[in-house]
Amino acid sequence: MKRFTSLFASALLVCSMAVTSAQAADKIVVGFSQIGAESAWRVANTDSITSEAKNRPNIDLKFSDAQQKQENQIKALRSFISQGVDVIAFSPVVETGWEPVLKEAKRAHIPVILTDRAVDVQDDTLWVTFMGSDFVEEGRRAGNWLLENYGRLKAEGKSSDVINVVELQGTVGSAPAIDRKTGFEEVVKGSPVKIIKSQSGDFTRAKGKEVMEAFLKSEGKNIDVLYAHNDDMALGAIQAIEEYGLKPGKDIIIVSIDAVRGAFEAMVEGKLNCTVECSPLLGPQLFDAVEALAAGKELPKRIVTNEDVFPAETAAEILPTRKY
Ligand code: GYE
Q: Mind listing the pLDDT tens digit for each residue in 81-90?
């Protein structure tokens, strides 16, 4: 398809699409830059995007995997610009450092859709819409669940004047790591909950395990709760806790985020106490937005995903219905 000359040159585009049969047969070319494959969430997100693209005969998806590196994402975006794709979509690994390449896309009149993670740029006309979860709210939900349930789960024999939390943060500088920390801290402020250690486990199972080992080494049985910014890190940490000789889900209460299948399995086994949902199934929404753009429609600046909180008591019932 002839590239959109401007985001808002819509009426013209709709007319030309309707009357020109040669163009109507053309596909909408979408360049998508994915972060990598760091977690089960990310794998499900990639699957949602690539399989949805296959379902839509009018979409030609150019998919690029950045293997966790911002520089690779910038290279991919530049390559999409030089190929003259119709729309660029990407999930930015970190929030900052995107101005130059986004300006290049704007100069080339290629609309940019942010999926999953936000960018921190002054000029918000550099992107058309941001679709994904409200990460601050997810952090709040994790904190609220803890405040409401800690007493029931682990108060016996222990003074609840202070609840010692260790925090496994996501990738340094990423929107979900920044926002999930903010949301959690906001709701536990002034409560007995104290974050005694906080470090990045880069959203991976291996790093989650490694950092939890270090937490256990320095804090040991002092740790009451683990708050992990994603399930993969929590699952890695569960292994570390077991190897240390404590019972995850009992000696150490664990709340994490994503609600991937592995988290439900761990909850059924009693090793994880709660997961806050963050849906990776963004493919249909993404291509709806791409098609709306191609049809000259204006998109809302923010498209938020609907999500839930799943305590361990619901795990056995919900597990068979999980799609990721
Ligand atoms: O929570 C984590 C993934 O950006 C919401 O990235 C996403 C996060 C998700 O690696 O598992």
A: 999 999 999 9
Contact 33, 85 (CB under 8 A): no
Asked if residue 150 lies in contact with residue 188, where contact means CB atoms within 8 angstroms, the answer is no
Place of tokens 């709760």: 225
Same domain, 146 and 267: yes
Total number of domains constituting the chain: 2
Output the CA 158–ligand 1 centroid distance in Å.
34
Supply 61's token pair.
Answer: 């998806």
Please report the pLDDT score of residue 8 as a whole number. 42
Mutating to test ligand 1, I would choose from 48, 278, 279 the residue with most ligand atoms within 8 A of its C-beta, which is 278
Residue 300 per-residue DSSP state: P
Q: What is the domain extent for residue 40?
A: 27-133+280-305
Which tokens in the block code for residue 158?
A: 């222990």
The CATH number for 224's domain is: 3.40.50.2300
45 and 176 part of one domain: no
Compute the distance from residue 231 Cα to the ligand 1 centre, in Å.
Answer: 9
Cα–ligand 1 centroid distance for 155 (angstroms): 31
**119, part of any domain:** yes
Q: Which atom of ligand 1 is nearest to the CA of 174?
A: 4
- Best substitution site from 33, 35, 39 to test ligand 1's pocket, by max atoms within 8 Å of Cβ? 39
Among residues 150, 131, 147, which one has the least CA distance to residue 139?
147
Report DSSP state, residue 93: S
Q: Which of 95, 116, 174 to mutate to test the pocket of ligand 1 (most atoms within 8 A of CB)?
A: 116
Residue 193 — left, alpha, or beta (φ > 0 → left; ψ -120 to 50 → alpha)? beta
Which segments of 35-90 are extended strands (E)? 59-65, 87-90
Are both 114 and 208 inside the same structural domain? Answer: no
Would you place residue 192 in the very low, low, confident or very high pLDDT band (cuts 50, 70, 90)? very high
> Within 6 Å (CB) of ligand 1, which residues are found?
38-39, 41-42, 116-117, 176, 203, 230, 232, 257-258, 278
Q: Give residue 4's pLDDT.
A: 59
